[in-house]
Amino acid sequence: MKSLIPILTMILLFVLTNTGNAQVKDTSKALKEVTVTAKMPLIKHKVDRIIVNVDGMITAAGSNALEVLSKSPGVFVDIDGNIQLNGKGGVLVLIDDKPTYLSAQDLAAYLRSLPAGIIDKIELISNPPARYDASGSAVINIQLKKNKTPGFNGNISIGYNQGAYARSNDALNINYRHKKVNVFSNLSYSRDAGYTTENGRRNYSTGSTTLLNKNYNYFSNGYNLRAGIDYYVSGKTTLGILLTGGIRPRSDQLNYNSDQVSTGQKPDSTALGHTAGDYQWYSSGVNLNLLHRINKKGASITGDLDYVNIHVNGSQYLLTNVYQVDGSLSSANDIMYRLPADINIWSAKTDYNLPLKGNVSLEAGYKSSWVSTDYNNSWFEKAGSNYLPDYGRSDHFMYKENINALYISAAKEWKHWAIKGGLRMENTRMHGQQPGNMVIADSAFKRNYTNFFPSFYFSWKADTSGRHTFTISYTTRIRRPSYQQLNPFLFYNDRYSYTTGNPGLRPQNLYAVELKYDYKSIFGVELAYLKVNNLIQSIVQPVGDVFVTRPDNFGINYSFNIVSWFSADVVKDWHVNAKLIVFHLINKGMADDQIVNNSINSGELEISNELRLSKKWSAELSGLYASSHLQGQTKTDPFLTLNGGIQKMILKEKGTLKLSVNDIFQGMIRRDHITTAEILSQRRVETDTRRIGIAFSYRFGKDTNNRKRNHNTGGAAEEQGRVN
Length: 724
Prior knowledge:
The protein is mainly beta. Strand 10 and strand 11 (about 180-205) form a beta hairpin. Mean pLDDT is about 85; it is low at about 1-40 and about 705-715.
């Protein structure tokens, strides 16, 4: 993909050098033809959600889905890949209206494999209604590009961006419709690479200190394919099949050194370590879908059947040597991991929509999903020239889960008033088993629980034109542990850091009340109260000089939020989108057998400037400031980031050329502090966030805005998201 740089640079230079010539034309001829161009806004505010038009985001040039999310209003993506929406963590991510909630690490890896060129728009839903799965504190819906225009059409996008490492994000979307048959597909390729530099200091209550320095880099290639056929049986009924597949090979390396200082600050020992990993990720799936329109008033029924298989295979080698002050080797560890996993997901769902007289509508639906996972992680330690199995640290974890859900909701609209209420019921049956070996005894656990999730929305238009709108809403949500979070396997990160799962982890429950005011979709303010019970947090527990990180039900989280936004033209051809989030956060719980009761006032300010320089030229300048944040034991320092980009329409406005610079001053540096009765820990983490990108996109064939039907992986996407 590096060869694309000179090609795209030449295109850019050609466009720049010919811009002046294009303007020196006979104006009398130009006046004979008038073209009206309607530009879709980058950000559109609706009563229940915010819509982000990805094609209008210039600073997304050559980027991927995760980077697009990080630039969306109210969305905060930290340096570890954790996603928040309006201050809410544990967000449920959707692809084409279907839930796909992911753990932070694997969510980041998956979204990095999706080029921005295949994304149409992103919906940000702070308080989702009953028709959505109850998982997650809020909903982010990523809708991929589709087209139903008769004939052959599509678009292609090529993107490249460069920081310390090169990345590429390319996509091809095609569609062919003839009479009753529509064939569609998108194919994408993503090359992802980056680095992480971490410096840390750990002070223990015993008086000893560990100084830790890490240098980590990774390389990954993502190949994704979606292909399907729709058959229009009649004007009312459509049958479809969708096939999906993905391959994501990845390799990484970690080099670290650490100095151990004993009581009295005397040098004790030095550890040098190296880790090399190689991983393969494969997915395949099939979706059968049905849409039947019952009548012309909008009544309809939809159905989806899904099967998805995910296979993961990986290996990791770790070498650590510990040297005494005199330079003598005191210990050496040579460890190998084998990390295979196999996941099978089945899902069936149906939704029914019924509009009635008097602006009344009813919705109802059912969903069942079945998940079977098999993790067989093996630990080998080198003895002589051979690697021998360590049965005491190896782990075979099998997990099965069945979730059955029902929901119903009703809505009624008047001239000034509107009301909507819903109830969702979800029953969860789960069974985990760890077959024993010659060292570890068999163990198993079972759980069966049912939850009800009511939701309520009420809105009032204070005037006949609807310029002033007030809305109050109440929702309840749940966040289930990911399958790997339940796995007790002990994973060795470095000489002083381990991670493990927790079979006793319980789901967390969220209760949210929001009061909103909206003025003509130009200005809005929102007051929100959130309470989370059984909050799932990664808790650090020191065991000697080793940090063991394990997910636990930390306790209770309270949050009082104020969200205000502004979206309007300041002057002609200068549009500003601004969002301010201020929240008071209270944490109460237990961490490492210590009572935690702390609070913090935090805030985030986002500003995006859209500048229309001429008919074909436009620019964007955006920035984000985040104050100190608090999560469980960890407090994170403030940071500031700034992005800029410029765009030109070319090739009769069917093509676009974009140039962008992200994190111009490299302000996305994370600084964490952990303070308990036993430890005082600090770390500084820097990643490959300062980048320059160039992207080219082109639409071909017929191009209209005909109504489109969503194609997705049905009801199985949420379960896919929880495989890691």
